[in-house]
Write a structure and sequence with these properties.
Radius of gyration: 27 Å
Shape: elongated
Oligomer: single chain
Largest sheet: 5 strands, mixed
Strand order of the largest sheet: 1-7-6-5-4
Length: 430
């Protein structure tokens, strides 16, 4: 049950431009400008998914169970599996140890689960409150199958802050473990209170020590990243190093616990849970490495070069005629737009919807029928940096984004083009 840090991003409003243009010419917007969000790293796979229709982009990570020190706390449905497993396993164990009835044993197991979840919550609060102390906003804490994670509004600005925020969680767990050890020694042997104290001491010490192992996505991996970052002054390199270290930790965890199960006769169910944790660590480390490599390519993002030109036709133009004009315009890769009678851009043609119309019907289908109103299309200022662009795309998913420069439309950014630039070796789905 590792405490993890999941850095989130701000969700601010997209720009909704209004535009005027003459037909058959690139567009000129009159944007209603709003603030653009800052900095977040996401994989191109995320942006590729953003090009497909989505519902509930702001969906919560679980059921809201309350707030602690103003921090929202969510319970992911996967946590129910952990609750059931520990209730049954610990309930049976304590029943045999103390001679309890089966029902009482399971009730005791359930109480232990609640105490364990409280320990995980305190671990995550260590991260959250420390982050807030350094001016980093906290979106919430989510408790899930393998523990929990804290979602923050931005990354740590310096290695020092990264180090303190990362180690705050394990420090809380180790302090709770120490309190549990003292309580175990003070309480009479063979009592229920002694059992609770011992198990809480063991679980918190285990969580604290495991989390300081030097590999992402564990807290110790973030501490390692902070150290490498401080030495090299290269956050992306530090993240990649800590990611590879995380893969070593994942393999080591699987190998060590497999050998212990085989040689010491530990329960096979316990091994299965550990292997699940190791697999999760491997996946998390891989995603971290990939994200670091993508982040290195942020300086290559130039919206003026990435934006495809817009070619507009009057509203009501048959689709076949609009496509013919677009082909004759000599603008390779251009995006087809729709203008009203006053020359105002009102929509962008959805290429997928247009291609889905049978060729023989296109002369009879108005281009408006396969177009999307510009009010539903977010825009990006041409001067945004790569990290800001990715942040905005992640916060406001879509297949197309109007690229604006003051009162002018530079063109349309296709999210697949951005994904291909950031991860050129990855095969993109259509």
């Amino acid at each position: 049950m590792s405490g993890r840090l999941c850095h989130g991003y701000d969700r601010t409003g997209p720009t909704r431009p209004g535009m005027r243009t003459g037909p058959d010419r690139p567009q000129s917007p009159r944007p209603n400008r709003r603030g653009h969000p800052e900095g977040c790293s996401v994989a191109s796979e995320e942006m590729e998914r953003n090009s497909r229709p989505r519902r509930g982009a702001d969906r919560r990570p679980g059921v809201t169970v309350g707030r602690v020190f103003g921090v929202p706390v969510y319970l992911n449905p996967s946590m129910l599996l952990l609750v059931a497993l520990i209730t049954l396993m610990y309930g049976e164990f304590v029943r045999q140890q103390l001679g309890l009835s089966q029902l009482t044993g399971y009730l005791v197991g359930l109480v232990f689960v609640v105490l364990l979840l409280g320990s995980v919550l305190l671990h995550e609060l260590g991260h959250a409150l420390t982050a807030r102390r350094f001016g980093i906003g906290v979106r919430g804490i989510t408790l899930e199958l393998l523990g929990g994670y804290t979602e923050m509004e931005r990354d740590a600005p310096t290695p020092r802050v990264d180090l303190f925020v990362s180690l705050a969680g394990p420090a809380v767990s180790l302090v709770l473990g120490l309190v549990g050890v003292v309580a175990t020694l003070a309480l009479p042997d063979g009592t229920l209170a002694n059992q609770f104290a011992f198990q809480l001491a063991a679980s918190n010490v285990l969580v604290g020590l495991f989390n300081i192992l030097p590999g992402l996505p564990l807290d110790g991996g973030r501490a390692l990243r902070a150290g490498v970052w401080a030495v090299t002054r290269d956050r992306h390199l530090a993240t990649e190093v800590a990611g590879w270290s995380g893969r070593v930790v994942a393999i080591g965890t699987a190998v060590v616990f497999t050998l212990l199960t085989w040689l010491a006769g530990l329960p096979w169910l316990g091994l299965a849970l550990v292997l699940l944790v190791a697999f999760t660590l491997w996946q998390g480390a891989g995603q971290t490495i990939r994200a670091a490599r993508i982040s290195r390519r942020f300086p290559l993002v130039d919206l003026a070069r990435l934006a495809r030109p817009v070619f507009s036709v009057p509203s009501g133009t048959p689709l076949a005629e609009a496509q013919r004009r677009g082909a004759d315009a000599g603008l390779p890769g251009s995006t087809l737009g729709v203008a009203d009678s006053s020359g105002r851009l009102v929509a962008l043609v959805d290429r997928t919807a247009a291609e889905a119309v049978p060729v023989e019907r296109r002369p009879w289908v108005a281009v408006d029928a396969v177009a999307r109103g510009v009010d539903a299309v977010p825009s990006l200022a041409v001067g945004l940096g790569g990290e800001q662009v990715v942040h905005a795309v992640q916060a406001h998913p879509g297949a197309q984004y109007l690229v604006t420069s003051g009162e002018d439309v530079v063109g349309v950014l296709h999210v697949a083009d951005l994904a291909q630039l950031l991860e050129p070796n990855r095969k993109m789905t259509q």
